[in-house]
Amino acid sequence: MRCVIARFPFDLFKNEVEDSMKGIKPEPVTGDAVVISRRVYPVKQVGEVITRQDRRDFSSAEVTRALTRLGFTCRTAQAAVPAPALTPLETASALLGTPEPRPEPVLPAAEPLPAPGAGQM
């Protein structure tokens, strides 16, 4: 398939992209990602390998568009971001659950206090 990345035309084929990424270890994904041979690669890393250009020369949208047209599964940066982890305190609170309400203690009736000034002369 013919595509343009960073103003340069490329003829890309799915099996050639898979072969070129075969021996390369995926970097940690912080933005857009693509699944190639059951591995998740950052789109910029794949673009650098298949175009042999510096990552600053092209956008991740250009590479994502080309890889999607080739049939690869691409994920946007929002979908790639994991849910925030709970702090240890939040985890313990979630495991323990909310406390049941305690019944209020029954206090004995208090003796009435004498009125002020009563009984004094």
How would you describe this protein?
- This protein is an alpha+beta fold and 121 residues long.
- The chain contains five helices and five strands; from the N terminus they run E-E-H-E-E-H-H-E-H-H.
- The strands form two sheets. It has a three-stranded antiparallel beta sheet with strand order 4-3-5.
- Strand 1 and strand 2 form a beta hairpin.
- The protein is rod-shaped.
By DSSP (H or I, 4+ residues per run), the number of helices equals 5
Structural class call reads alpha+beta
Helices and strands, in order, run as: EEHEEHHEHH
- Summarize the amount of helix as a percent range: 25-40%
Spatial sequence of strands, sheet with the most strands: 4-3-5
- Total E-strand runs: 5
Intertermini distance: 112 Å
How much β-strand is present in the residues? 15-25%
Rg: 33 Å
Uncertain spans, ≥5 residues at pLDDT below 50?
Answer: none
- How would a crystallographer describe the biggest sheet? 3 strands, antiparallel
Shape: rod-shaped
Mean pLDDT: 85
Could you give a short description of this structure?
The protein is of the alpha+beta class and 121 residues long. Helix content is 33%, strand content 16%.
Draw up the topology in text.
Layout: E1 2-5, E2 8-11, H1 14-20, E3 33-36, E4 39-42, H2 43-51, H3 60-70, E5 73-75, H4 77-80, H5 88-96
Antiparallel strand pairs: 1-2, 3-4, 3-5
